[in-house]
Here is the input.
Amino acid sequence: MTETKIKFCGLRREEDVKYAASLDAGFFGFILSERFKRYIAPGEIRLLKQFVPSNAKTVGVFVDEPEEYVIACSKEADLDMIQLHGSEDDAYIMSIKEKTGLPVIKMVKPVSEGDIITARQSKADLILLDSGAGGTGKVFDWSLAETLGRDYILAGGLTPANAGEAVKRLKPFAVDVSSGVETEEIKDFSKMKAFAAEVRKI
Here is the structure.
């Protein structure tokens, strides 16, 4: 089994990025939809890229944004990947891939087997299974993920307390955490370190 990668999401400060880099994160997630509290401007992301290791990927997270906005932000922020975290369909995904040349991660909220079928058939390069619009701190029914049959990122309510169990049971391609490693809505290095240790303990 290859080691499960780690995606720290909702990064906003230089310290956050340096914390994630020191823990050998594979994916650095930045929220680019302005209505969310962890939003960061694309120009700031470009500046923070200097602290992202060359073997890691910067991921811009968008929620039901106009295509033009996603394309412009991706270019300005110099993103490596795009994450679509709303109700975007396959036509939208294919258009974004074509116009940016970047791989796309698509969030699916698994409530039923039908959602898993949707995820399995998605045109996205990678699926992210989450319990909602991000940062909810809630876990979904993990048994649904066991039937997906393709690589995916596991998100939704992960913390240092349950990350190890998740990796042992589900063996996801990667795990994604945001609020689960924060104290008063700020990234907490001790929690990030504990999270990484649990993921890699398996």
